[in-house]
Amino acid sequence: MSGEEEETEIRIPEHDFGTCCDELKEAMSGEDFDPLISVGEDGVLYMSVGLVEIDDDDPGMLDHPVFFCPFCGKGLQTAEEVRAKTGDDEEDES
Predict the structure, then answer these.
(1) For a surface tag, which of 6, 9, 56, 59 has the fewest beta carbons within 10 Å of its beta carbon?
(2) CB of 37 within 8 A of CB of 27?
(3) Exposure string over 24-36, b if 16+ CB within 10 A, otherwise e
(4) Tens-digit pLDDT profile for the chain (94 aa)?
(5) CA distance 55 to 67
């Protein structure tokens, strides 16, 4: 690879989501189903929480970052880490 190619290459950070418990690992496996908990292209762990209407025929999935394992409760990522990975520098003022 030339130096120019390395600069334009997008790298996804390594993650260890699914290592805290067998239940999360199985839920993310997607072997028998489309998983509702998955790692996005940005390296953030998301859970599909609903459907949104994109156009008349095709609904889209509404995803939300997962901060704690829904099975064992272990902290998986912080809001600050999610903002850094997604490039969202604005903080919620609620």
Answers:
(1) 56
(2) yes
(3) beebeeeeeeeee
(4) 444 444 444 344 456 888 999 999 999 987 778 889 999 999 999 999 998 888 777 788 899 999 999 999 999 999 999 999 998 766 554 4
(5) 30
Return the residue matching tokens 């199985």: 26
For 3-69, the DSSP string reads HHHHHH---PPP--TT-S-HHHHHHHH-SSS--SEEE-TTS-EEEEEEEEESSSS-EEEEEEE--B-
Of how many residues is the chain composed? 94
Joined tokens for residue 46: 């998301």
**Which structure tokens are listed for 52?**
């949104």
